[in-house]
Structure formats: structure tokens, C-alpha cells
Amino acid sequence: MAVTCFLRYVIDPYKLDDFEAYGRMWIRLVGKFGGDHHGYFMPSEGTNNVALAMFTFPSFAAYERYRERARDDAECQEALALAERTRCIVSWERSFFRPVFSAEGR
């Protein structure tokens, strides 16, 4: 059963460009490890310090394999270093959901 990871970030509103660069890196990296990234969602109107992201793996086991492989991956370490260096992320929350797709979809 597929699992979707939902991330809610509290970000520094003065470092949106840094966070967007971080997000663009992870979109590709999730795909590299077999996930389907649904994008990062940046502040637009309203709250200026919250961003969201969602990505799906075919199973929770596949997600766990991604986490294991990502720990030793140089590109993943580079993305994490960018966030640490720029301090664009203040905090984050991670939740998991079971997606429901249309009958015509997946």
C-alpha cells in the first residue's frame, strides 16, 4: 500500500530563495530513490513562514529504504548541508498518509 509523506516546514521568510533551492534538490532526489514527489508549496498569500511538501512511495518499506540510502548519498548530504548552512528551516513536522487516487489514476 502506498504511503505519502506530508512535510510542514516553518521557514525563515527572509530566506525563501534558499529554501526553494533546497526543495528543488529534494524533488529530484526523492525520484532518484523511487518516490513520486508532488512538489514543494511556498508561501504566497497569508502566512509567510510556512511551506509544505508531499511525496509518495509505493510502500512504507520503500520509504524506509529511501531513508537508509539517502543517509549515505552525497547529493542528499549536500541538500541537508544547504539547509544547515543557510538556516532557512526553523522547524519541520512529518506525517504519513495513505493516498486515495481516482479509479482512472494509479
Automatic annotation (TrEMBL):
<dbReference type="InterPro" id="IPR011008">
    <property type="entry name" value="Dimeric_a/b-barrel"/>
</dbReference>
<dbReference type="Pfam" id="PF07978">
    <property type="entry name" value="NIPSNAP"/>
</dbReference>
<protein>
    <submittedName>
        <fullName>NIPSNAP family protein</fullName>
    </submittedName>
</protein>
<dbReference type="InterPro" id="IPR012577">
    <property type="entry name" value="NIPSNAP"/>
</dbReference>
<feature type="domain" description="NIPSNAP">
    <location>
        <begin position="8"/>
        <end position="100"/>
    </location>
</feature>
